[in-house]
Specification:
single chain, alpha/beta, Arc Repressor Mutant, subunit A, 2 domains, two-stranded antiparallel sheet
Length: about 325
């Protein structure tokens, strides 16, 4: 007799055959049920007979065209359904690998390489259950594909809303290596830059950031940007900064991107002048109805970058 005081132990002895019984009952054929179970038909038939003998009841009527349930078989099926199928479905879900939600962030190469990647490990650590994907382009499109959740892009500054904010304004200075500055100690006037090698960041079309022409024109509207000096052009801001650090000329340095280089002395100000534009690095949620994960990552980035920039402006760092 089954031990009624130990239902789990009793059920464990019959659980495999009970699952096969439900499969046979649903299929109405031993052959089809055996195929789905990965057993031979004689083997499945023997297990059903063993189950009937153990329970002391006939469960199946074996007929030429298949099987039907006896009254005892119907009662057993009613007792197991829907509990056993639900348990099987739940176990199948448990076995499936958990697919993590991924938040996709797109930005330009300069911001990614010089500003975002240093804090990227902290961002991932703050959201261990999320996948954080970073897409980079030299000049991201204003309206990317639907896979992008967050955009960080140099754009005209706009008032902060629930879905976008300015991380920091575009403030630009002329920078060079300490060695290059030592070779040009009397560099005080912007007009003097025209005779020096200027390192330029190029882009297709009209870039939405300061170029040497626009920066010098704003600093000294009466002076032309071009002169007798060499122009070194790169399409990667990392290369622009590396060229400046190696003493190849003067580059434009964006506050918020090169601050660590200034702090370590790898770069120094070639001129005391800084120019600010109405543009800035705007952080924007691309969906009108972002999920909780996207909004949480947005809030983290906004807090991290706006706080650090305000600390820099106030002299705290």
């Amino acid at each position: 007799m089954p031990d009624i005081d130990n239902p789990y132990g009793t059920f464990a002895r019959y659980s495999a055959d009970l699952s096969l019984f439900l499969l046979v009952a649903d299929c109405g054929q031993l052959s089809r049920a055996a195929e789905l179970a990965g057993l031979s038909q004689p083997r499945l038939s023997q297990r059903m007979k063993s189950l009937e003998e153990a329970l002391g009841r006939v469960l199946l009527k074996r007929e030429r065209r298949g099987i039907t349930l006896t009254r005892a078989g119907q009662e057993l099926r009613a007792a197991l359904v829907p509990h056993l199928p639900e348990a099987a479905a739940g176990f199948a879900r448990f076995q499936r690998p958990v697919r993590r939600r991924t938040v996709v962030i797109e930005t330009d190469l300069a911001f990614a390489g010089l500003r975002f990647l240093p804090v990227f490990p902290s961002l991932c650590a703050a959201f261990p259950d999320l996948g954080i994907s970073l897409l980079t382009r030299q000049l991201p499109e204003a309206d990317p594909g639907p896979e992008v959740d967050l955009m960080i892009r140099m754009e005209p500054q706009r008032d902060a809303t629930e879905s976008e904010c300015c991380l920091f304004a575009e403030r630009v200075m002329a920078v060079c290596s300490p060695g290059f500055h030592a070779e040009n100690p009397d560099l005080l006037d912007p007009a003097q830059l025209r005779a020096l090698p200027l390192i330029e960041l190029t882009a297709a079309g009209t870039p939405p950031w300061f170029t040497w022409a626009s920066w010098l024109a704003q600093l000294d509207p009466g002076a032309g940007a071009r002169g007798g000096g060499d122009r070194l052009s790169f399409n990667s801001y990392d290369h622009v900064i590396q060229a400046a650090e190696k003493g190849l000329g003067v580059a434009l340095g964006w506050r918020g991107l090169i601050d660590s280089r200034l702090e370590t002395g790898a770069l120094v100000a070639a001129l005391p002048d800084e120019q600010e534009s109405p543009r800035g690095y705007m952080l924007r949620m691309m969906s009108r109805q972002p999920g909780e994960e996207v909004r949480a990552v947005y809030d983290w980035i906004r807090a991290r970058f706006t706080e650090s920039f305000h600390d820099w402006r106030s002299g705290a760092i």
